[in-house]
Design goal:
Elements (H helix, E strand, L loop, with lengths): L3 E6 L10 H11 L1 E6 L3 H13 L3 E5 L20 H4 L5 E10 L5 H21 L4 E6 L2 H11 L11 E3 L6 H9 L3 E4 L10 H6 L5 E3 L21 H12 L3 H16 L1
Helix pairs in contact: 8-9
GO molecular function, one term: hydrolase activity, acting on ester bonds
InterPro entries: DNase_TatD-rel_CS, Metal_Hydrolase, TatD-like, TatD/YcfH-like
Keywords: Hydrolase, Metal-binding
Length: 262
């Protein structure tokens, strides 16, 4: 049973090649589990390989809206190896998928990103998996798609998932919650106060914590390479912001993560 659960990391990136054993050692010392998230086929395959090798690791497979050079997700229902990857028992989600208009021009790239997002939603539904949403400068666009095509209460749709690295306001948060999604927060909450209102207002059962390692390390590691064991600091800060017992919050966060992967 994990003591902490980082629901979004990229241990499949090369940033950890030189000290892999030490990183895993720190995860074990802190009792931290993590979901390693793919951004394309190769990184998704690597995530599955790590999940197979380490009991503390689970995998999320998919294509990032802009980091992958692929214009679409070809034959995702069974082609190019995706159909085999998704069968692995430790693949717990599809993504990270979504939309990103911070890096790309919305007018030029909207239709490609929308198609890629919908293909991965279809894949997730076909295999009864939650989705891991990436959204940057794209909350209105993503919510429009979800609210129009996958409204809560639609008996045909069992779409569920988590909004990774949530950075929206309370109104946006409530719209995602109404659709049955959870929200996860990163180490940014340890040094920025923009998230406090949402963290205090959202039900604890709808919150998870993540590192997005190797990015955005929390205080006191800010400026360094991030890693899953540092999620301990995110969990502590989240409890502090909510003004709640840290142990109760820690246990709830783990329970929330386990409910996503089971």
């Amino acid at each position: 049973m994990p003591k902490y659960f980082d629901i979004h990391s990229h241990l499949n990136f090369g940033d950890y090649d030189k000290d892999w054993d030490e990183v895993i050692g720190r995860m074990r010392e802190t009792g931290t589990y993590t979901i390693v998230v793919g951004t394309d086929y190769e990184s998704s395959k690597r995530a599955v390989e790590l999940a197979e090798r380490y009991p503390e690791i689970y995998a999320c497979i998919g294509i990032h809206p802009v980091d992958s050079p692929l214009p679409t997700l070809p034959l995702i229902r069974g082609g190019q190896g995706w159909g085999e990857l998704v069968k692995h028992p430790k693949v717990v989600a599809i993504g990270e998928c979504g939309m990103d208009f911070f890096h790309q021009d919305k007018e030029r790239d909207f239709e490609r990103q929308k198609k890629l997002f919908l293909e991965q939603i279809d894949f997730a539904l076909a295999h009864d998996k939650p989705i891991m949403i990436h959204a940057r400068d794209a909350y209105p666009e993503i919510l429009e798609i979800l609210e129009t095509e996958f409204p809560l209460g639609n008996s045909v749709s069992k779409l569920r998932g988590n909004v990774h690295f949530f950075a929206g306001d309370l109104v946006t948060a409530k719209r995602f919650l109404k659709l049955g999604f959870t929200l996860s927060f990163t180490g940014v909450i340890t040094f920025a106060r923009n998230y406090d209102e949402v963290i205090r207002s959202v039900p604890l059962e709808s919150i998870m914590v993540e590192t997005d390692a190797p990015y955005v390390a929390p205080v006191p590691y800010r400026g360094k390479r991030n890693e899953p064991s540092y999620v301990v600091e995110v969990a502590k800060k989240l409890a502090e912001i909510r003004g709640e017992d840290p142990e109760r919050v820690r246990a709830a966060l783990v329970s929330n993560a386990l409910s996503m992967i089971m």
